[in-house]
Amino acid sequence: MHAALPDPSALDDDGLLHRIRAGDRDAFTLLMRRYNRRLYRVARSVLRDDAEAEDALQDAYLQAYRALPTFRGDAALGTWLTRIVVNAALMRQRKTGRLAEIIELGADYGADDASMAHDADDGHAASAQPELAALRAQTRRLIETGIDKLPTAFRTVFVLRAVEELTVEETAATLDIPEATVRTRYFRARAMLREALAREIDFAIEDAFGFDGARCDRIVEAVQQRIAADSSN
Description:
Largest sheet: none
Mean pLDDT: 77
Low-confidence stretches: 98-121
Number of strands: 0
Strand content: under 5%
């Protein structure tokens, strides 16, 4: 009686790699799902376009699948895949005529996601969820726009460090740059993003607690009704 094969989802990267080399396409599907979010974010940090990032990611996966039989494991599989995605994104960038920029930075969504999960469990805050969700969505769009405006080199470092939470060492290995460069770009990226967000917040503050429109009309009408009521007494 043959022993049952282990569930691919329970395998680490090396186990998946063994199954893929044996011709198991389901294992490759699982590998893609395991790394999709990170690799998509990396591709988008270079291209700043959702559709182009998806296409670059597909190109990179095809390249990786073809090259997996010769993958020697000199780097972690995730690092190797990320390098392929970066190269695929840069190739697509050159093909589409986009200018390559050299700067990166990142946004920390982890704390926001955790607070949202906490709030979802808080019955007292349940009534505020729609407004809170809208505010967070608006804030996220603001942050994503700020990240998109960063030069490419800073933007990619930021995404890997802040969004994907890779270490300095992992980011340096992934992008094949010195650790000191990672630290410098990440620091500058955060500073640039803070400055950009601060400007947006300053503009927003000027419009805070707006009083024109429906609110103004409602108060005027209510007062007029009360004056009319007093006059009739």
